[in-house]
Design goal:
With 73 residues, this protein is an all-alpha fold. 42% of the residues lie in helices and 0% in strands. The longest helix has 11 residues.
Length: 73
């Protein structure tokens, strides 16, 4: 499922990492780099599994990472 929520593995992993003091949702953060987006997706983090290249291509991952790491006015 791609919906956010407390029962989702990614949400649980972030909650465990930040012990209840969650940062903004990814699209609202201003501190992300492309590498900080790509690495956990490709390698997994906590209970979130890694995403294979057959699930999201390198080009798709790069586009998502560039969008999330963009400079905001």
């Amino acid at each position: 499922s791609t919906r956010p929520g407390p029962d989702q593995p990614g949400t649980q992993a972030v909650a465990a990492k930040y012990t209840g003091k969650l940062p903004a949702r990814l699209a609202q953060r201003t501190d992300l780099t492309e590498a900080s987006v790509i690495y956990p997706v490709r390698h997994g983090i906590s209970v979130m599994p890694a995403a294979r290249k057959t699930e999201i291509s390198d080009a798709e991952m790069k586009a998502i990472a560039a969008y999330l790491a963009r400079t905001r006015d």
